[in-house]
Each structure stands twice: as structure tokens, then as C-alpha cells.
Design brief:
single chain, mainly alpha, Amino acid/polyamine transporter I, 15 helices, germination, Spore_GerAB, membrane, transmembrane helix, GerAB/ArcD/ProY family transporter
């Protein structure tokens, strides 16, 4: 099961290459983004280690089961509802952004609501399954897509269009103090580990995560490429002209001898599956946290999830809110809301990590 932990972390890292994180860092590239990346690598890696080590002390249990044994209902129920809302919001931001990307770069005549509704139905259908089925799908998607993504990144770095002088200029701003916005965005790259809040139920015989060293290594590589490659292609000032920076960067690349010359279409196809997988995982975790309040989390011998009707109610309600925001909020307003959510996520995530460390130590003392 160790590999599934790496898949969870890697899925979140790859998803955030496309959406808000590069934009948040590049906006503050002269005012603390470099130092924020360094701080986020330390904070994200340590948070991942302590949370994973702590929750593995409760083999076969998710947050609902852990909290039920440790806290009274007046604290446990509102806290689980809040965490479920945060997880579902994470997937919602991604699906809205990616629907707009597809509409803008593939066919502007696409009906945004119809496209978004299709993405939501696909993601909800996957999210309504059992945790094991979601993990198996995650493995398939990552194994198929990762080699092509690595190849695109290799082509980007080796391209003659990559201006390394622009990258060197950014090292002059290493001394700028980190900002809360850029730290909250950069640490989100590492936040895939937090899905162990539910998927720990499938890690019943795992005492510790092997290959954990891959988390800071992969996080450093993802942050470095997502930040420096767009600067190398568009320049230190020109990079500010793009909303979806990495999509525009991929459109600047060509494969002279490929069966598809424009990298953009390959890039969008690869990240379509990664993004929908991310939405499915976050909505699955959010629904399972909500179901935990009503003790509807068990799985039968045929790997069928109980309380699926409640999951679909959560998805219908969340999907309605997502469609409403797509109609009444434009891209700048959505980005502003997302930036505030990133700060709230950082605070709540670090609080959850501290809480799990305390619970694990208390359990060990009792044992």
C-alpha cells in the first residue's frame, strides 16, 4: 500500500501545476516567492511526515472513527462538516478552472455549464465508489500519464526557447521575505498526504511509509519546474500577461516529429484525467467525512460502499453550488476567492496535523 501514498501526493502535485499555484507564485515572483518555495518545502514535508506517522498509529481507521473515540459530538460533528466542506471546495475550484481552460483553449463555443456538468457527473460517479476502487483508478491514471508528463517537462527544459538568463535573474530575489499567500499556495503542492484522513482505512497493515524521501524530492522538482519554466519561456515580466500560465507555456512548445505537433492538446488531455481524478478523490474524501457523522462508512464483502445515497446528496448539493459560482463569478473573482481559501486551508491543515500528532501521542501513552 506504500505506493498509493506516493500516488496521492503526486496526484496533488501534478494537478496544481495547471491551476492556481503557479499563478500565485509568479504574481509574487519579485516579492518573496523564491523564499516561499523554500519554506513550503520544509513545512509541507514535515507536515506530511508527522500527519502520516500519526494517523498510521490508528490502523484501519479514518478521521470519523478516530474523532468519535476521542471527542464529544459537539466538537466532532461541526469539525467534520468543516473538513468535508474544505475537501469538496478543493475539488470544486479545480473543476471550474479546468472547464474554463477547456472552453478557452479548445473551443470557445463550448457551453461552460454543459461542460462543467459533464465533468461533475464523471467525477461524482467515481467518487461515489469505495475507497479501494478510487485508489485503483488513481494508480492507473498516474502510471499512464506520468511518463508523458515527464517527457513534456524534459522537452520544455531542453528547448532552445528556454531562456536560462531569465531564470538566473530570479535568484537575485532569494532574499525577499516569504508572504502568506505564496506560502499557502506553494504548500498546497504537498497536501495530497491529507487524503490519508479517509484512505488510512485501507492501510491496515502498514506501520510506516517507505520511500518517504520521495515527497520532498518530488515537491521540490514540481515547484521548481512550475515556477521557472514559464519564466524561461515568457521572461520575468512577460510571464505576468497570462492567467493560465502553464497552459500558455505548453502552447509555446512544439514536437517537430510527433504525431501531434502542438504540445497544448497533449498537455490538456493528460491533465484532464489528472484533474478529474483529483476532483473525484477530494469529493470522495469529503463525502466520507460527512457520512462518518451518521456512521455510514462500512464496506460490504463485495466492496460496495454503504450510504451511497448520502454521497449523491452531497454531490448534488455541491454540484449546484459549483454551477452557480461558474455563472456568477468570473475568473478574477474565482481566483480571489481561491486565494482566501488557500490561506484558510493552510491554517486548518496545520491545525489538523497538530491535532493528529497529539492524538497519536496520547494513544501511545495509553498503550
Amino acid at each position: 500500500m506504500n505506493r498509493y501514498f506516493i500516488y496521492m501526493v503526486l496526484m496533488c502535485m501534478l494537478t496544481n501545476t495547471v491551476v492556481f499555484v503557479p499563478r500565485m507564485l509568479l504574481t509574487e515572483r519579485f516579492s518573496g516567492a523564491m523564499m516561499s518555495i523554500i519554506v513550503s518545502i520544509a513545512v509541507g514535508s514535515l507536515s506530511s511526515y508527522w500527519f502520516t506517522k500519526s494517523i498510521l498509529a490508528f490502523p484501519g481507521q479514518g478521521l470519523p472513527e478516530i474523532f468519535e473515540a476521542a471527542f464529544p459530538a459537539w466538537f466532532r460533528v461541526p469539525y467534520l462538516i468543516f473538513l468535508a466542506a474544505m475537501w469538496i471546495a478543493a475539488g470544486s475550484f479545480v473543476v471550474v478552472s479546468y472547464a474554463r481552460i477547456i472552453q478557452r483553449f479548445v473551443n470557445p463555443d463550448f457551453n461552460l455549464l454543459a461542460l462543467l456538468a459533464f465533468f461533475l457527473i464523471v467525477s461524482a460517479w467515481v467518487a461515489a465508489g469505495s475507497s479501494r476502487s478510487v485508489l485503483y483508478l488513481m494508480e492507473i491514471v498516474i502510471i499512464i500519464n506520468l511518463p508523458l508528463i515527464v517527457f513534456i517537462l524534459y522537452k520544455a527544459i531542453r528547448s532552445q526557447s528556454m531562456d536560462w538568463d531569465a531564470v538566473r535573474v530570479m535568484t537575485h530575489y532569494m532574499g525577499e521575505l516569504p508572504t502568506l499567500n505564496s506560502v499557502s499556495g506553494a504548500t498546497y503542492v504537498f497536501t495530497g498526504y491529507i487524503n490519508m484522513a479517509i484512505f488510512n482505512r485501507t492501510f491496515q497493515d502498514v506501520k510506516r511509509i517507505q520511500w518517504f524521501w520521495a515527497v520532498p524530492v518530488l515537491g521540490t522538482l514540481v515547484l521548481a519546474t512550475s515556477f521557472f519554466i514559464p519564466i524561461g519561456y515568457h521572461g520575468t515580466y512577460g510571464v505576468d500577461q497570462y492567467i493560465y500560465t502553464w497552459v500558455s507555456t505548453s502552447d509555446s512548445m512544439r514536437m517537430e516529429f510527433g504525431f501531434i505537433e502542438r504540445v497544448l492538446y497533449v498537455f490538456l488531455l493528460l491533465y484532464l484525467s489528472i484533474s478529474l481524478l483529483f476532483v473525484s478523490v477530494t469529493w470522495h474524501v469529503g463525502a466520507e467525512l460527512f457520512k462518518g457523522i451518521f456512521h455510514l462508512n462500512h464496506v460490504d464483502e463485495n466492496d460496495r460502499q454503504s450510504g451511497s445515497w448520502l454521497s449523491w446528496l452531497v454531490f448534488l448539493f455541491s454540484g449546484g453550488i459549483v454551477l452557480w459560482t461558474a455563472v456568477y463569478l468570473n475568473e478574477k473573482q474565482s481566483a480571489a476567492v481561491a486565494s482566501h481559501w488557500f490561506v484558510l486551508r493552510l491554517v486548518s491543515e496545520l491545525s489538523l496535523v497538530a491535532l493528529m500528532v497529539w492524538l497519536a501521542r496520547r494513544r501511545r501513552r495509553k498503550a
